[in-house]
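Task: encode each sequence below as structure tokens.

Item 1
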Amino acid sequence: MKTLESLVRTFVEAHPKDAANALEQMDTTESVKILDRLPSRLNGLLMERLTPQKAGAILEGLEPGRAHELLAGMSPRQASLVLQHLEPSRREETLAGLPDSKARELRDLMYYPPETAGGMMEPRVASIPMDLNVQSAIGVLRKAPRQTLFYLYVTDRDGKLSGVLNMRNLLLALPRDTIESLMSRETLSVPATMDREEVLTLMRRHRFLALPVVDADGRLIGVIKHDEALRAGQLEAFEDLQKMVGAGGDERALSPVSTVVKRRLPWLYVNLVTAFAAAAVVGVFEGVIQKVTALAVLLPIVSGQGGNTGAQALAVVMRGLALREILTGSAKRVIVKEAMAGLLNGIAVAVATSAAVWVWSRNVGITLVIGLAMIVNMVVAGLSGAAIPIVLRALNRDPAQSSSIFLTTVTDVVGFASFLGFAAVCMPLLLG
């Protein structure tokens, strides 16, 4: 048994990321047993790399003293994310067992939602008071922990961000020069309540290695590191992708079944209702289908092409919204552009489809009907794929939240209605 434990310790120490991935796939009870046998140093390596959900579940199963020990060894931001996945009573119990300074720091971080600048920031950041001279400032920097040094931020005595100092200016200045005379007051900072998407846009635009975060009074309370912004950007993209199809934004591959059902079932019900709406359209034209059964064979072609066209427009517009490429004044132009693209693509696809249907059926009526329906549905699909996320954003709703479900409804209903409607009008040609 000691040999096995030694192998586990060696594996965790040499490959902490792989060990964390293996731990994610284990039952929580087994994960707790493994962590109980590992030293605190290795536990910290694992906990930092686990998803907050899994780490929270493990903390729930640990003894309070062991949980306090693990939290104390984690970075403040990661610890705050993990605490948010504990039951409220257990969370308060855990915080109460931590040192007052640590507990206060974690409470402050949990105040800001994860999708804000405050939820992304690293609270430990070194700064230089502006009324120091160069010699004293260098002494302060030498005492500061290395992991808290990013840019040389300058604050006043109340902790309010006043500027930033260039390292070259600091090194070349005279010992008695004041920091205030050397610093630049042109400093870009973000409020702690700023949305994550806006923060990511700023960091991409200016290519900062770090971005200072201030509270409502302008006090420096943290910094957002470039690698954290990159990770948050990836997370945002994956969340939007999941939301578009009705899955929960916080779902993970190894999320519990209860979480999966809770996040997906409501949107599956919505999808069911919209499917009945599309089926109702087909029901209205039941008599038309009975007269020309070939129409039932061709229905999926029209709705499928519309769905693909809409999905293409939706993907491009979602990217434009995420990267702030689509401003208020350009929304109409984007919608018109996608509708025109749908028209031109629709004509091209309609010609190919009509030719194939003519070879298959030798029926002028069916050939004409499917060509017209294809054009109509692809124009509407392009327009809807662009308009749905833009309208949701205008209504202050998440544009990614199940946009594809609404889009599928539109393309199915319009596709069925246009195809069967044209068929009803052209019935003499179909039967001739």
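Item 2
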Amino acid sequence: MRTGSIDGWGVPIQTENPVAVQHFDAAVEELLSLSGDPISAVEDAVGVDDGLILGHILRAYLFLYGQSVGGVANARRIVEDIDGRVLQLDEREVLHLRAARAWAWGEWADAARSLERALLHEPRDLLALKIAQDLYFFLGESADVRGVVARVASAWRPEVPGWGYVQGMYAFGLEENAEYRLAEEFARVALDNNHEDVWATHALAHVFEMEGRTEEGIAFLIGSADHWDSSYFAVHNWWHLALYHLERGQIEEALALYDGPVRRSRSSEWLDIVDAASLLWRLSLVGLDVRQRAGQLVSDIEPLLGEPVYIFNDWHTIMAFGLAGRSDLSEQVISANQHAVGSNRVVTEKVGLGLLEGFRFFATGEFRRSVDVLVECLPLTGAVGGSHAQRDIINLTLIAAAARSGHADYARALAATRGNYRDDGSDMTERLLLTNGV
């Protein structure tokens, strides 16, 4: 009979080896803090105790976070290996295994539901909470990005290890549901608890973005950079800084960030690729010639192409390919997405293919067709995942497409609507109209 221990958050874990628990806890905390090397930590955990099933499941999760064809294949092999073992799994292991299996085979919504059941069983299962919130984010389920944290909040008290991370996670959920005052409050509580909480930093950066508080956002990110610049999430925070500069009409500063911390390392991680593509697209919309940079980015993206895994990523490849004039690669991505599977197929058929087409039409100068497609997509775009700040690129592109296709009044109306939530105005929107002939 298998016997267990307790992890760092008070939840049972099936291993008698305290060193394995220490490594597992380190891997989970590094995932929560977006720092260190959670992959190495969990490999150490299963290296000490190969029977640590949750360790193997965490390995699968980390492969799946990469959102690559190879990562999915590796995760499937791990799940199949666990399935082949003759073990009596406890309830936590069963539910996490179901979640990993569903995610690996493309059923992301099913994975989130299994993790919700795990949290019902153990509300302080911090691994389940982190994975569930991220899955809801990928699925565009904003209400559940907040709700999944709210449903376990009563189990967390300030004296409980991990409490600060939960506050930061709740802050992000609040922000994505436009509860900006509460989001800022929870983010600051989390940061008071731990200045190096990168997710809480990110949540507050979103509040500044959505409220148009760009001067505060610039000061905040520059002032806190020492706390998050070593994070594997750092590129995304630098991307947020670039957006503040763009919003203030400081184009050269945004371009310098692209050439500096956003793209200096030429990372092949999808999160970094997405940020680079969307920043280049925004820079192009306000009149910069970014074709050479886009060509370099395309060379980094090409090895990642294959079966569709996540429409959000593929949509951003269309931006990079369009800027570089690689319509052949755009067609390849669109064709591949006609054969998407699982949760990704549902979103792709609902709105994803429309976004791919709308951005491809813009890149090839077919602005009227771009407007026609994007107007139909606009009410549905939350389903592709990502944040409001990331999806704002659809609004910007539609404004530019309307302007370039002769619909000046519509472009002005779209620009005015976008500006309503930005308290300090938007030089970005004004420059966008001027650059595109309105």
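Check on item 2: The chain has a mean pLDDT of 95. The longest helix spans residues 342-363.
End of task.
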